[in-house]
Design brief:
Layout: H1 7-21, H2 30-37, H3 50-59, H4 66-76, H5 81-92, H6 102-111, H7 115-118, H8 121-131, H9 148-158, H10 165-172, H11 179-189, H12 198-212, E1 217-225, E2 228-235, E3 247-249, E4 256-261, E5 266-271, E6 277-279, H13 290-301, H14 306-319, H15 326-338, E7 350-354, H16 362-365, E8 374-381, E9 385-392, E10 398-399, E11 404-405, H17 407-422, E12 425-431, H18 432-435, H19 438-453
């Protein structure tokens, strides 16, 4: 479940951080600092304080840029833990996350044996220090005066029988922590950065999943890091365990494909390369965002100007839409205009995507032909969710130019949908008539994407 990011609170938190930062930098350093954080250049007046200049820069920063500024702060600036925690929670709450109820957390803690993690004490403590306040003030709620880090070293690492894991979670305040923080805690406990031992990683994941699966969650392997498995917390019933390798989209005709390495699944478009787009970068945990697609486009086109590249990419994808399908064109146009001020942070809407591919035609393949070779649109969301959007015109269920119903066509379409769903895709179909008129289609499209992405469009769009 994704919550809408509280931009007002985020702005307030960033302003609080700037109070800390201005003491570390000189006046002449502020332009470089603002550039690094993604803030507008600060004004330069002889009678303006450093704090005043940074505050003015933040006031000039548009709302849609705030999440990027906050992430840049988290990535580059060491902060006191309380400021760090509050800023992390504000940023993470606006992203996809899995909800783990308090009862599940407590039952997991009661049975969690930290023996494997205790074997790597520095790594274990480093994880705790990134997510929980172990820090510099006296631990007045613990059994000893001193830091919580000191208590954990004594009662969990050195004398493991002193504290139960449930009591450790209590001291960390993990039971009442926001869902995104607890989810990152579980992912950290399963990571090779904390457990550089694959068998130990898998023991923890198997144990954790026994508690997570009843509430519809799972630690799932999604790739490797330095030869070790990497696990992410995902919602069950959605997505697929596999990540796409080649995305063939915005096609102006059937691609002529050949394998340059069948062992590695490396493909090449043999002919008509200018009519085919192939995105071959790894798709990250957050799915394929417009910003990812634009970065790829700028690289392959050697385009330095991001605004011009964005327009060129949009136009190239728009050109692939069928000329006779006003519904598809309206869906594509509306999505990009509804989210125009947030486009970098929303999933890319890929048109004319090849889901199946066969060198032979359907007529040549006969009864063994796969259905629904090419889809109208595909979106890759966080948690490995693959969402197919189809705009159904009369050709999907009629023949002879729409004059006669064709039950065989309709049955083939439904069979193709079932096959996709078994492969982990979510399929949503629009009737062409509900998208034919752009003004009438706008609330339909806005409501759909709001529900799909759990994200409100910008009110000014």
């Amino acid at each position: 479940m994704t919550e809408r990011m509280d931009l007002l609170r985020l702005r307030s938190l960033i302003e609080g951080v700037l109070v800390t930062l201005y003491q570390k930098y000189r006046h002449q350093d502020l332009p470089e600092l603002c550039e690094r954080l993604g803030l507008p250049s600060p004004p330069l007046n002889d009678d303006t304080t450093k704090h005043g200049r940074l505050t003015a820069s933040l006031r000039a920063c548009p709302d849609e840029q705030l999440p990027h500024v906050a992430q840049a702060v988290l990535d580059t600036e060491p902060l006191p833990f309380i400021e760090l925690r509050d800023l992390q929670d504000a940023v993470w709450s606006g992203r996809g996350h899995v909800e783990i109820p308090g009862r599940t957390r407590r039952e997991l803690a009661k049975e969690f044996d930290v023996t494997d993690h205790r074997g790597y004490p520095e790594r274990f403590l480093a994880l705790l220090g990134r997510l929980w306040d172990l820090g510099d003030e006296l631990n007045v709620w613990g059994p000893h005066l001193g830091t919580l880090r000191d208590d954990i070293q004594r009662h969990v690492i050195r004398f493991p029988d002193d504290w139960s894991t449930e009591y450790l979670f209590e001291q960390l305040r993990a039971f009442e922590a926001p869902h995104p923080r607890f989810g990152r805690f579980l992912e950290g406990l399963a990571s090779s950065a904390v457990l550089p031992d694959e068998q130990a990683q898998r023991r923890f994941v198997e144990f954790a999943n026994r508690h997570l699966q009843p509430v519809g969650a799972q630690l799932r392997q999604e790739g490797e890091v330095d030869g070790y498995p990497q696990f992410h917390l995902v919602q069950l019933g959605r997505g697929t365990a596999r990540r796409p390798r080649n995305l063939i989209f915005a096609t102006l005709g059937k691609p002529d494909i050949r394998f340059t390495s069948a062992l590695d699944n490396d493909i090449e478009i043999a002919e008509r390369k200018d009519e085919i787009l192939v995105y071959n970068r790894p798709v990250g945990k957050d799915g394929l965002l417009w910003s990812d697609l634009l970065s790829w486009w700028q690289e392959i086109r050697e385009a330095d100007d991001a605004e011009e590249a964005a327009q060129a990419l949009y136009s190239r994808m728009e050109d692939s839409l069928p000329r006779r399908s006003e519904g598809q064109k309206n869906l594509f146009w509306l999505y990009h205009h509804i989210y125009k001020s947030q486009l970098r942070d929303v999933p890319a809407l890929l048109p004319e995507i090849w889901v199946h591919w066969d060198p032979k035609t359907i007529r040549e393949r006969g009864e063994l032909a796969q259905q629904n070779l090419r889809m109208d649109f595909l979106m890759l969301l966080s948690g490995n969710r693959r969402v197919v959007l189809e705009v159904d015109g009369m050709q999907h269920y009629t023949r002879d130019g729409g004059s006669k119903p064709d039950s065989a066509k309709y049955a083939a379409t439904m069979a193709g949908d079932r096959d996709l769903k078994f492969r982990g895709y979510e399929v949503f179909r629009f009737g062409h008539d509900e998208l034919r008129d752009r003004d009438r289609a706008r609330p339909v499209v806005a409501d759909f994407f709001r529900a799909l992405l759990n994200r409100l469009p910008d009110s000014s769009s």
